[in-house]
Structure formats: C-alpha cells, structure tokens
Design a protein that fits this description.
Helices cover about 40% and strands about 20% of the residues. The chain has three helices and two strands. It has helices spanning about 5-10, 40-50, 55-65; strands at about 15-25, 30-35. It has a two-stranded antiparallel ribbon with strand order 1-2.
Amino acid sequence: MSVIDNAVKHFDNQDVRVTLVPEWGQEDEPLKIYSKPLTLSETSKLYKMSKEDDLTMMAYVLIYKALDRLWGKSLLRKQKRTNRGC
C-alpha cells in the first residue's frame, strides 16, 4: 500500500466528534454539531483563507466542518454569510 493510500485510509477511519453548544440550542437541549477531523488539504485551504488570523481560522473550521447530524449535510456552509463583527 502506498503512502497516499495509508494517509487516505487514516483520515477515512477518523471518528465523528460531537460538540455540544448550549448557547445555540433550544430550551434545555444544546445544539449538537457533528464533525470529522480536518484533512491536510482542508487545513491548507483554511490557513490561506484566514490570512494568519487565529479567530478567523476557528470560524472557518466551524463553518466548513459542522454537520447537522451524523454523516449529514453541512450545518453552516449554505447560510448567507454576513459580517457579525468577528
């Protein structure tokens, strides 16, 4: 197996993580955001987009990786982007 095959297999086997965001949930139930770890390609793309600003980088990671449910559709990417002072 090639190095590339091993790297692809490694990222494909990463677990989906759940992040609970109480401030974004409804009533007593926090919002559950599912995500898979960043790939090297995604990391490179996000670094270029964030222009070396850590806060912008974190916002882009949330936007690009958030899923509405396990293996579901993107939670935030299709939303209209507005400037909220961040």
